[in-house]
Protein backbone atom coordinates (compact mmCIF):
# COMPACT_ATOMS: atom_id res chain seq x y z
CA UNK A 1 0.00 0.00 0.00
CA UNK A 2 1.42 3.39 -1.02
CA UNK A 3 1.47 6.08 1.65
CA UNK A 4 0.02 9.42 0.54
CA UNK A 5 0.01 11.85 3.48
CA UNK A 6 2.68 14.36 2.41
CA UNK A 7 4.16 15.23 5.81
CA UNK A 8 4.04 11.65 7.03
CA UNK A 9 5.54 10.20 3.86
CA UNK A 10 8.37 12.78 3.84
CA UNK A 11 9.17 11.84 7.43
CA UNK A 12 9.14 8.15 6.55
CA UNK A 13 11.34 8.68 3.48
CA UNK A 14 13.82 10.54 5.67
CA UNK A 15 13.82 7.61 8.10
CA UNK A 16 14.57 5.17 5.28
CA UNK A 17 17.37 7.36 3.95
CA UNK A 18 18.92 7.94 7.40
CA UNK A 19 18.80 4.23 8.23
CA UNK A 20 20.44 3.42 4.90
CA UNK A 21 23.14 6.06 5.42
CA UNK A 22 23.89 4.62 8.86
CA UNK A 23 24.37 1.14 7.38
CA UNK A 24 26.74 2.52 4.74
CA UNK A 25 28.70 4.48 7.35
CA UNK A 26 29.08 1.48 9.67
CA UNK A 27 30.11 -0.82 6.81
CA UNK A 28 32.81 1.59 5.63
CA UNK A 29 34.07 2.05 9.20
CA UNK A 30 34.30 -1.71 9.75
CA UNK A 31 36.66 -1.98 6.78
CA UNK A 32 39.50 -0.25 8.66
CA UNK A 33 38.72 -2.01 11.94
CA UNK A 34 39.75 -5.27 10.26
CA UNK A 35 43.32 -3.94 9.87
CA UNK A 36 45.25 -4.35 13.11
CA UNK A 37 48.45 -2.59 14.17
CA UNK A 38 51.44 -4.87 13.39
CA UNK A 39 52.68 -6.85 16.39
CA UNK A 40 56.47 -6.39 16.42
CA UNK A 41 58.68 -7.93 19.08
CA UNK A 42 61.93 -6.43 20.42
CA UNK A 43 64.49 -5.57 19.32
CA UNK A 44 62.61 -3.00 17.25
CA UNK A 45 63.92 -1.75 13.92
CA UNK A 46 62.68 0.09 10.85
CA UNK A 47 63.36 -3.02 8.77
CA UNK A 48 61.04 -5.08 10.98
CA UNK A 49 58.44 -2.35 10.79
CA UNK A 50 58.57 -2.27 6.98
CA UNK A 51 58.32 -6.06 6.82
CA UNK A 52 55.29 -6.00 9.11
CA UNK A 53 53.62 -3.27 7.05
CA UNK A 54 54.39 -5.22 3.90
CA UNK A 55 52.36 -8.10 5.28
CA UNK A 56 49.37 -5.74 5.47
CA UNK A 57 49.47 -4.68 1.81
CA UNK A 58 46.76 -7.16 0.87
CA UNK A 59 44.47 -5.87 3.60
CA UNK A 60 45.00 -2.27 2.52
CA UNK A 61 44.23 -3.23 -1.09
CA UNK A 62 41.01 -4.86 0.10
CA UNK A 63 40.20 -1.77 2.17
CA UNK A 64 40.75 0.65 -0.71
CA UNK A 65 38.83 -1.41 -3.27
CA UNK A 66 35.89 -2.01 -0.91
CA UNK A 67 35.88 1.60 0.31
CA UNK A 68 35.40 2.92 -3.21
CA UNK A 69 32.95 0.17 -4.19
CA UNK A 70 30.78 0.95 -1.15
CA UNK A 71 31.29 4.66 -1.75
CA UNK A 72 30.11 4.35 -5.36
CA UNK A 73 26.98 2.54 -4.28
CA UNK A 74 26.32 5.11 -1.54
CA UNK A 75 26.57 7.95 -4.08
CA UNK A 76 24.17 6.12 -6.37
CA UNK A 77 21.80 5.35 -3.48
CA UNK A 78 21.92 9.00 -2.39
CA UNK A 79 21.08 10.22 -5.91
CA UNK A 80 18.35 7.63 -6.38
CA UNK A 81 16.64 8.55 -3.13
CA UNK A 82 16.69 12.17 -4.28
CA UNK A 83 14.05 11.18 -6.85
CA UNK A 84 11.79 9.49 -4.30
CA UNK A 85 8.48 11.11 -3.48
CA UNK A 86 6.74 8.03 -2.16
CA UNK A 87 7.43 4.58 -0.78
CA UNK A 88 5.81 1.18 -0.50
CA UNK A 89 6.53 -2.21 1.02
CA UNK A 90 8.35 -3.44 -2.07
CA UNK A 91 10.79 -0.54 -1.88
CA UNK A 92 11.44 -1.22 1.81
CA UNK A 93 12.22 -4.89 1.24
CA UNK A 94 14.40 -4.39 -1.83
CA UNK A 95 16.30 -1.64 -0.02
CA UNK A 96 16.75 -3.94 2.98
CA UNK A 97 18.20 -6.71 0.80
CA UNK A 98 20.49 -4.16 -0.82
CA UNK A 99 21.71 -3.03 2.60
CA UNK A 100 22.33 -6.66 3.57
CA UNK A 101 24.78 -6.90 0.67
CA UNK A 102 26.54 -3.77 1.97
CA UNK A 103 26.74 -5.17 5.51
CA UNK A 104 28.44 -8.30 4.16
CA UNK A 105 31.16 -6.27 2.45
CA UNK A 106 33.54 -5.85 5.44
CA UNK A 107 33.59 -9.62 6.00
CA UNK A 108 34.01 -10.61 2.35
CA UNK A 109 36.66 -7.91 1.91
CA UNK A 110 38.60 -9.12 4.98
CA UNK A 111 38.27 -12.75 3.87
CA UNK A 112 39.61 -11.89 0.42
CA UNK A 113 42.47 -9.66 1.59
CA UNK A 114 43.56 -12.10 4.31
CA UNK A 115 44.25 -14.92 1.87
CA UNK A 116 44.92 -13.26 -1.48
CA UNK A 117 48.71 -13.70 -1.11
CA UNK A 118 48.20 -17.45 -0.64
CA UNK A 119 46.85 -17.63 -4.19
CA UNK A 120 43.46 -19.06 -3.17
CA UNK A 121 40.45 -18.55 -5.41
CA UNK A 122 37.66 -19.20 -2.90
CA UNK A 123 38.16 -15.86 -1.05
CA UNK A 124 38.13 -13.99 -4.37
CA UNK A 125 35.03 -15.81 -5.59
CA UNK A 126 33.26 -15.15 -2.27
CA UNK A 127 34.13 -11.46 -2.61
CA UNK A 128 32.93 -11.43 -6.23
CA UNK A 129 29.62 -13.05 -5.21
CA UNK A 130 29.13 -10.32 -2.61
CA UNK A 131 29.78 -7.60 -5.21
CA UNK A 132 27.41 -9.29 -7.67
CA UNK A 133 24.74 -9.53 -4.97
CA UNK A 134 25.18 -5.81 -4.28
CA UNK A 135 25.04 -4.93 -7.97
CA UNK A 136 21.93 -7.03 -8.58
CA UNK A 137 20.05 -5.56 -5.61
CA UNK A 138 21.12 -2.06 -6.61
CA UNK A 139 19.81 -2.72 -10.13
CA UNK A 140 16.57 -4.08 -8.64
CA UNK A 141 16.22 -1.02 -6.41
CA UNK A 142 16.52 1.23 -9.44
CA UNK A 143 13.87 -0.80 -11.27
CA UNK A 144 11.44 -0.41 -8.37
CA UNK A 145 12.05 3.33 -7.91
CA UNK A 146 11.81 4.12 -11.63
CA UNK A 147 8.80 1.91 -12.39
CA UNK A 148 5.87 4.24 -13.21
CA UNK A 149 3.46 1.55 -12.01
CA UNK A 150 4.52 2.16 -8.41
CA UNK A 151 4.47 5.98 -8.65
CA UNK A 152 7.38 6.35 -6.21
CA UNK A 153 9.50 9.02 -7.90
CA UNK A 154 9.65 12.09 -10.08
CA UNK A 155 12.37 12.86 -12.61
CA UNK A 156 12.94 9.28 -13.76
CA UNK A 157 10.52 9.23 -16.68
CA UNK A 158 13.42 9.55 -19.14
CA UNK A 159 14.27 5.93 -19.92
CA UNK A 160 17.66 6.95 -21.30
CA UNK A 161 18.56 8.35 -17.89
CA UNK A 162 17.37 5.15 -16.22
CA UNK A 163 19.43 3.10 -18.67
CA UNK A 164 22.49 5.23 -17.85
CA UNK A 165 22.03 4.54 -14.13
CA UNK A 166 21.46 0.84 -14.81
CA UNK A 167 24.67 0.54 -16.82
CA UNK A 168 26.69 2.38 -14.20
CA UNK A 169 25.31 0.18 -11.43
CA UNK A 170 26.46 -2.97 -13.22
CA UNK A 171 30.07 -1.91 -13.89
CA UNK A 172 31.53 -3.25 -10.64
CA UNK A 173 29.69 -6.63 -10.70
CA UNK A 174 30.64 -7.28 -14.34
CA UNK A 175 34.29 -6.34 -13.77
CA UNK A 176 34.46 -8.56 -10.68
CA UNK A 177 32.86 -11.46 -12.57
CA UNK A 178 35.47 -10.98 -15.30
CA UNK A 179 38.18 -10.98 -12.62
CA UNK A 180 36.84 -14.26 -11.22
CA UNK A 181 37.08 -15.87 -14.66
CA UNK A 182 40.59 -14.48 -15.21
CA UNK A 183 41.64 -15.95 -11.84
CA UNK A 184 41.51 -19.43 -13.38
CA UNK A 185 44.24 -18.30 -15.79
CA UNK A 186 46.28 -15.99 -13.57
CA UNK A 187 45.20 -14.96 -10.08
CA UNK A 188 47.30 -11.80 -9.90
CA UNK A 189 46.08 -10.67 -13.31
CA UNK A 190 42.57 -11.04 -11.91
CA UNK A 191 43.44 -8.60 -9.12
CA UNK A 192 44.70 -6.12 -11.71
CA UNK A 193 41.33 -6.37 -13.47
CA UNK A 194 39.79 -4.37 -10.61
CA UNK A 195 41.46 -1.31 -12.16
CA UNK A 196 39.01 -1.56 -15.06
CA UNK A 197 36.20 -0.16 -12.89
CA UNK A 198 37.24 3.53 -13.07
CA UNK A 199 38.02 3.24 -16.79
CA UNK A 200 34.57 1.86 -17.63
CA UNK A 201 32.94 4.47 -15.36
CA UNK A 202 34.74 7.29 -17.16
CA UNK A 203 33.88 5.81 -20.56
CA UNK A 204 30.15 5.53 -19.79
CA UNK A 205 30.08 9.02 -18.30
CA UNK A 206 31.71 10.50 -21.39
CA UNK A 207 29.41 8.56 -23.70
CA UNK A 208 26.28 9.92 -22.04
CA UNK A 209 27.69 13.37 -21.27
CA UNK A 210 28.05 14.13 -24.99
CA UNK A 211 24.43 13.30 -25.77
CA UNK A 212 22.75 14.06 -22.46
CA UNK A 213 24.73 16.69 -20.49
CA UNK A 214 21.70 17.40 -18.28
CA UNK A 215 22.18 14.02 -16.56
CA UNK A 216 25.24 15.47 -14.82
CA UNK A 217 23.73 18.73 -13.54
From TrEMBL:
Gene Ontology MF annotations: potassium channel activity; proton channel activity
Q: How does it sit in the membrane?
A: Multi-pass membrane protein
A single GO cellular-component term from the record reads:
membrane
Q: Which reaction does it catalyse?
A: K(+)(in) = K(+)(out)
Which subcellular locations apply to this protein? Membrane
One Pfam family named in its UniProt record = TMEM175
InterPro entries in the record: TMEM175-like (IPR010617)
* Classification via PANTHER family: ENDOSOMAL/LYSOSOMAL POTASSIUM CHANNEL TMEM175, ENDOSOMAL_LYSOSOMAL PROTON CHANNEL TMEM175
Protein name per the record: DUF1211 domain-containing protein
List the taxonomic lineage: Bacteria, Pseudomonadati, Bacteroidota, Sphingobacteriia, Sphingobacteriales
